[in-house]
Design a protein that fits this description.
Length: 98
């Protein structure tokens, strides 16, 4: 265990997977922005719908990153559904946040 009391874990990027993704769900305890940055190529190529647990994250930074990718974000309590307009998905009953 590291001196901070946190365990270190090996990491890999979303882009390192050789699969086509049409949806991605992230629950990475506050590391959502870094995970998204590690999936930049996959996000640009596949335009997946994203489900993110964002309660421990910088939600403004995530919104800025995904907005730059052309996504629209919808709040689900402290979580987020992000949809690329190219997917022609209508989101009903959720508050649009970007």
């Amino acid at each position: 265990m590291a001196k901070s009391g946190r365990e270190r874990a090996p990491t890999i990027t979303i882009d390192s997977f050789a699969v086509k993704d049409d949806q991605i769900k992230l629950i990475v305890e506050g590391m959502e922005l870094r995970a998204l940055q590690g999936g930049r190529q996959t996000i640009a190529r596949d335009k997946p719908v994203l489900f993110l647990e964002t309660g421990k994250s910088d939600q403004d930074a995530i919104a800025a990153f995904l907005g730059q990718q052309g996504y629209h974000g919808y709040a689900v309590e402290k979580d987020l559904v992000a949809v690329p307009p190219e997917r022609n998905i209508t989101v009903k009953g959720l508050k649009k946040v970007f």
